[in-house]
Amino acid sequence: MSHSGTALIDPYQIFSRISLSEGKRVADLGCGRTGHFVFPAVKIVGDKGVVYAVDVVKNILDSIKSMARSEGYDNVQTVWSDIEMPGKTPIPDNSLDAVFCVNVLFQLKNKAGAIKEAARMLKKGGYLVVVDWAKKLGALGPSEDRMLNPDLLAELSAAENLKLVDKILPGEYHYSLIFEKN
Fold it and tell me: Could you tell me which CDD domains the record lists for this protein (predicted)?
């Protein structure tokens, strides 16, 4: 079963940039109904890894849980949380190899809080991967005034001891910044 396409964003391109591999522990913050990063990630991390699907909308998590069960993935764990509230996501400090925020931060009022929460959960040397809408004339996505400025993202991340290590274009309408926790 295909849970999501790669027409807009190719998760595998991003996974290769951070060397996602078997046994890793990752979280997708704001995972969304299709699990666009959840299900490709679980195929890579395998039975020895864990993928946390985090969202604030409970019925989205029910959908993810149902899809994971039907596919036989026992290592997809759904987590209900408001990522704008640092310290509230029930994932231990310094426990994750990677955190993905895909098309999420532009929607949030407390972007700094969400970055702080992601940094809290990351191990030293772990990666925060942010994918968001690029400003492009006639593009899909939110209005330009709601789009996340990459410079602001870099500033917020630096404040949480996250160093920018890579920039990529994972699709025609998106940019991705990859930060490593120092």
Answer: AdoMet_MTases
